[in-house]
Amino acid sequence: MDLTDWLKNEALELGWDYCGAADIRPYHDYLASLAGNFIYQYPMAISLIFRLSDGAVDSILGQEQDKQMSFNNYCYHAVDHMQNINAVKLTRMIEKKGFRAYPIPASYGVYPEKLAGLVSHKLVARAAGLGWVGKSGLFLTSQDGPRVRLTTILTNAGLAAGQPVSNKCGSCTVCIDDCPAGAIGEWDHDTNLPRIDVYKCYKYQEERKRKWNIKIDRCICGLCQAICPRGQRLG
User: Which of 79, 47, 49 lies closest to 155, judged by CA?
Assistant: First the structure.
């Protein structure tokens, strides 16, 4: 079994639904503008994707306070915690094979002024060929749409890299039309990326926390994740 197949088998055994490798050298300069020169020692990155429970995601379609708080705890306290623990395990397994590896925590912001983490999980997942960034700014897979959570491991292991796939959102504008924060704009054809105002999204969530008088770090909306036709199994 070659190294790439070994990695994918181990990732699936640890509970992830998708695993792919990306050559991130074309993105080094951009990534270094955030994370610094340490990124140059890692030519590859491993994208790891966990498929969320339909029941948990569907529950937030009504945007009710109790379901929102339950979904928040599910995503950030359960799924992300599981991913982070298993990323540490997989990192150590890679190191035991003689390679360098560095786990990037799931959804953990280290640049609050940019509402960004150390490395873009979506950039790595797209470069690995596991899906695309949709109009909502979320990462979508062909099979599960945006009902996924991502994490990343940087490495210098000689893995077979995937290739980016084309955006499959087509003419659908459901996420744009239904965003309660008005944070999703039209597609930017110059950058080939969605126009997302992350500060509008953040402000909406903070205002709802105050309205509901709840004391938690996040109270995510998640409506764009729940209503996307690509991921729905309702009916």
Answer: 47
Q: What is the pLDDT of residues 193-208, one digit of tens each?
A: 788 898 899 899 999 9
The candidate with the shortest Cα–Cα distance to 58, out of 205, 201, 235, 234, is: 234
In angstroms, the Cα distances linking 200 to 12, 179, 183 are 36, 11, 5
Is the distance from CB of 178 to CB of 148 less than 8 angstroms? no
E strands within the chain?
A: 18-23, 44-51, 101-104, 132-133, 139-140, 148-155, 184-188, 193-196
User: In the beta sheet, which residues pair with residue 47?
Assistant: 20, 152
Residue found under tokens 């990343």: 152
For 103, list phi and psi in degrees, rounded to 5. Answer: -80, 135
Distance CA 92, CA 42 (A): 16
Give the Å distances, CA to CA, from 80 to 6, 123, 128, 140, 150: 23, 18, 20, 18, 9
pLDDT at 77 over 80: yes
Enter the pTM of the model.
0.92
